[in-house]
């Protein structure tokens, strides 16, 4: 893993992240498709923590409590279809008595160039069915999102087929690089130092 040198300051943290959710569709046929980019990020965190997620029916997904950069954090990949992601997020949040502003949702984003990654708080769903369902179940838009750029097909009528297909080898390499960029700022994210994490990510240029 690449090194990212961080200097702690007195920046006030809004909220430390206690749950990271990677959005996906279930099953092998979707595992390598663009729509599962959020799950790819969580899978990388699981590998980094030398951990394993367990199926939890009460959370409608694969869940684990892992240690990342000396901090405990819940990881979750819903096993529902994308448009039902909210029930998994709400179940895990309620069970562990978390608040929405301590949740980070990692998801694919067609409005960002392939290989870019951005951090955002609040806002609408941008047409993403997983975010739409999460907003509906949490009754708020005030949670963090890790937006993973997968590119755009160029025509809105082609979006569904685009996200439900595999990226090219070159695009997958770009997305993987973006996920590494996100891992680099993870210590800031876990500490709630979001403005610093945003600045670090938003000044990067896609490869």
Sheet with the most strands: spatial strand order: 2-3-4-1-5-7-6
Report the average pLDDT across residues: 92
Structural class: alpha/beta
- Please indicate the percent range of residues in DSSP E strands (runs of 2 or more): 15-25%
The CATH homologous superfamily is called: Peptidyl-tRNA hydrolase
Stretches where pLDDT is under 50 for at least 5 consecutive residues are: 1-13
**In the CATH scheme, what's the topology name?**
Rossmann fold
Largest sheet: 7 strands, mixed
String of helices and strands: EHEEEHEEHEHHHH
Please give the radius of gyration in angstroms: 16 Å
User: Which CATH architecture would you pick?
Assistant: 3-Layer(aba) Sandwich
What is the CATH class designation?
A: Alpha Beta
Count of individual helical segments: 7
What features would you describe in this structure?
The chain has 207 residues and is of the alpha/beta class. The chain has one domain: Rossmann fold (3-Layer(aba) Sandwich). The chain has 7 helices and 7 strands; from the N terminus they run βαβββαββαβαααα. The protein has helices at residues 37-48, 85-95, 129-138, 159-163, 169-184, 186-191, 194-202; strands spanning 19-22, 54-56, 61-68, 71-78, 103-109, 117-121, 144-149. The protein has a 7-stranded mixed beta sheet, with helices on both faces. Strand 2 and strand 3 (61-68) form a beta hairpin. Helix 1 crosses helix 5 (169-184) and helix 2 (85-95) runs parallel beside helix 3 (129-138). The two termini are 18 Å apart. The relative contact order is 0.20. The model is unreliable at 1-13 (pLDDT under 50).
